Task: structure prediction
Amino acid sequence: MESVESVEESVKPAADVVATFLTAKGFMPLDEGMALYAAAFEAARLGLPLLEIGTYCGRSTILLADAARRAGGDATVLTVDHHRGSEEQQPGWEYHDPELVDPEVGLMDTLPTFRRTLHAAGLEDRVIALVGRSPRVAAVWGGKLGLVFVDGGHTDEHATADYEGWAPHLAEGGLLVVHDVFPDPADGGQAPYRIYRRALASGAFVEVSALRSLRVLRRTGPGI
Ligand code: SAH
Ligand code: MG
Result:
């Protein structure tokens, strides 16, 4: 049984949010989710929006949203997804969930499930869902962000576009969080690891924390 007992009281989500998180469909484990929560709690204090790439069914979104609420300010959570699923979530692939296919159009549609998750957590008012391809949304986005959480497509094409599209919008002091970072190819795909390395190599970021495949970097300067 997973437990949140070890997490510091001040940065722990409300019990009902943890319960919703644990029952929500998705790919965020509890321990990495708590690290994401702590990062979001800190970043929300910048008073800027927090942005997630890869909404899926809202499992991680509700952590960002509850952290923003708990931080006490008015930070909004933006979450980007075309809601048609990543390559590995399509029929016949390892992470496919047949319950998430829209029978009328015959394609994945995670948006209704996401909305139910958000509603169950009581966090609809904190979150703006941006339904579209990440690079297309990034191309029209003009504002500064307090946090960018990269958890979208895991091909090099997608991960690179997410980094290039969104990292420049991070305010100085803001946090770049990357999920599914696997230095050893035996553990998983390398695209998130490559953007994590690229961020560090740019000189614009320092690493703040690492918990399994979740990495938190702080933007310390220009030069992305
Ligand atoms: N954060 C979620 C998991 C995200 S799974 C959780 O914690 O459970 C990855 C999601 O990224 C999928 O829903 C997929 O539709 C989305 N995605 C993949 N490539 C994308 C792109 N280029 N633009 C927008 N969304 C994308
Ligand atoms: Mg992930």
